[in-house]
Amino acid sequence: MLTKDQKEKYMKLAFEQAHLAQDQGEVPIGAIVVDNSGNVIGKGYNRRELDEDSTQHAELIAIRQACHKMNSWRLVDCSLFVTLEPCSMCAGAIINSRVKEVYYGAFDPKAGAAGSVVNLFTVEKFNHHPQVFGGLYKDQAAEMLKSFFRQIREKQKEQKLSSQEKDNG
Amino acid sequence: MLTKDQKEKYMKLAFEQAHLAQDQGEVPIGAIVVDNSGNVIGKGYNRRELDEDSTQHAELIAIRQACHKMNSWRLVDCSLFVTLEPCSMCAGAIINSRVKEVYYGAFDPKAGAAGSVVNLFTVEKFNHHPQVFGGLYKDQAAEMLKSFFRQIREKQKEQKLSSQEKDNG
Predict the structure, then answer these.
(1) CB within 8 Å: B53 and A64
(2) In which residues is Zn(2+) bound (chains A, B) (predicted)?
(3) What is the ipTM of this complex?
(4) CATH number of the domain enclosing B129
């Protein structure tokens, strides 16, 4: 297992990725993959709307990049850091790529597949079971998402008001 | 729901994709995505080893292609055909992209996420629930996989024998 300092360092990098998503108007979720020497071999942020592609989640992008970097579909001995609990697709990709350890931030009560809705990491029949550590910097991670959606709602309200003003001449 | 003829036609196309995988030494799994007018908007076959990428499953490739074709991450009113029951990653991608109907061939007792190991399509809390029809041409689909693995084992046996013969001079 990683030290507290290492976990902090890598989660910060995942947050940096989430900020890149936010800067482009995407739901702020970021992920990174680290090899067993501590090298960052994959980075990704949510690009679903930017790319109009439902598979462009932060984790999937980071995993694909890590596979290409390692020239292997097996990410044995690698760790994945992500600011939000993985969904089923991303949890499945983590299992498929044999990632050793998963560290995630906020819990996702709507789609979380690491315990919040289902837990794919503990299904006995699956051929790989990563170690999973949830709730890392969860307040910061949750606040980032809440503040993003708050801003979206405020913008929508402003647009509504401005269009009403136009209608009223 | 589609007619018997339509289902046969689209499953045949999924099998064609699976054959493309087999021709390149990959586990033969193929998938296609069809829009609500019956146009094939995504095709894919398993390329995990070819691309050394754990996310390169048939379904994911077909979904990504369909998203690009539609210029939308939402594949509402689309159907996905695949020769093997989707794994968690692919079932998650199907949910994320709001695919309406899923037709699959062989059951996967080791990793199937449409009922064989877990059933992600019936999890109440998830925000999308496709209609799922499993076991379509399941004997043909299962035989294709069995025959592939039989050939692999035979090749390995031959290689072992030939190396033993060399060792014996």
Answers:
(1) yes
(2) 57, 87, 90
(3) 0.94
(4) 3.40.140.10
